[in-house]
Amino acid sequence: MELGKKGLGNTAPNPMVGSVIVYQNKIIGEGFTSPYGGNHAEVNAIESVADKSLLSKSTLYVTLEPCSHHGKTPPCADLIAKHQIPEVVIGLKDPHSKVSGRGIEKLQQAGCSVQLGILESECRWHHRRFLTFHEENRPYIVLKWAESKDGFIAPDPSKRKKNPQPFWITNTYSKQLVHQWRSQEQAILVGTNTVLEDNPKLTARNWKGKHPVRVILDSGLRIPKEFHAMDGSVRTIVLTQKEDRSKHVDKVDYEVIDFSKPLASQICKVLHKHQITSLLVEGGSQTLQTFLEENLWDEAKVFTGPVTFENGISAPKVSGNLKERISILSDTLATYTND
Question: Which of 39, 55, 321, 336 has the lowest CB atom count within 10 Å?
Answer without folding.
Answer: 321
